[in-house]
Amino acid sequence: DVQLTQSPSSLSASVGDSVTLTCRASQNINIDLNWYQQKSGKAPELLIFGASSLLSGVPSRFSGSGSGTDFTLTISSLQPEDFATYYCQQSYSTVFTFGPGTKVDLK
Amino acid sequence: QVQLVQSGAEVKKPGASVKVSCKASGYTFFTYAVHWVRQAPGQSLEWLGWINAGNGNTKYSQIFQGRMTITRDTAASTVYMELSSLRSEDTAVYYCARLTGYSDSSGYYEYLQHWGQGTLVTVSS
To answer: Which candidate in A30, A96, A102 is best for mutational testing of the B interface (most B CBs within 10 A)?
Structure first.
């Protein structure tokens, strides 16, 4: 199975900050990498698919990049509603996997 | 609009089985695969398996092979996830999610855009 690691596991930031989250795959997964945001007690919500395509309706301060094994999610100018946990997920294999997540909280 | 509505919370004893349902609406049921994901308290998301709602083919995480069965009822537009031989470590919120496939000039992408509200399964003696 494709294993995903995420770093950092958590970070503290302030409103207005720009943050970059990283996801690394154990093998080449092309651009078959999606990003989700999850708030406490809620189902995950898709932000980005295909490594860099923003889902319609998702604010443009979210952006994704990468291919192969290394991917990033950048949130420019953090807003109060962005404090949450972010997960990457690969769809390269028919056996999907999620990364362990990065929690973004308020400094 | 696409909706996935899951069955209510369950409390089970170790060794028992649980069957969680996921009723779909707002789209042509047999056209899309449905995946299952769980989240233990304070833990990350764990992918469980999926079913092709059209032909019923399934794929499971190796961790759950032999202990999990995903089925569907096309007449009821409902997918079911059954987990047997429950243990305390199976206590989690279980989510169903519909797969979306999207194609453009760059390629074909698959992602989980629509999710159920989650079902808490508690395993306790």
So the answer is: A96
Q: Between residues A85 and B65, which one has the greater pLDDT?
A: A85
Through-space distance between the first and last CA atoms of chain A, rounded to whole angstroms: 36
Joined together, the tokens standing for residue B29 give 């049921």
Tokens of A40: 């406490």
Q: Summarize the confidence of residues B106-116 as an average pLDDT.
A: 93
* B109 interfacial to chain A (CB closer than 8 Å): yes
What is the phi/psi pair of residue B9, to 5°?
-60, 150
User: What does the pLDDT read at residue B45?
Assistant: 98
Measured between alpha carbons, how far is B116 from B98 in angstroms, rounded to an integer? 9
Q: Do B44 and A101 touch (CB under 8 A)?
A: yes
Average pLDDT along chain B: 96
Cross-chain Cβ contact A97/B106 below 8 Å: no
Cβ <8 Å between B45 and A101: yes
Residue B69 half-sphere exposure toward CB, CA atoms < 13 A: 8
Q: What separation in angstroms does the CA of B7 have from each of A34, B102, B118?
A: 27, 29, 8
Q: What pLDDT score does B57 carry?
A: 97
Q: Cβ neighbours of residue B104 under 8 Å, at least 6 residues apart?
A: none
Determine the average pLDDT of the residues in B69-77.
Answer: 97
Q: How deeply is B31 buried, as exposed, middle or buried, from its count of CB atoms within 10 A (0-12, 13-18, 19+)?
A: exposed
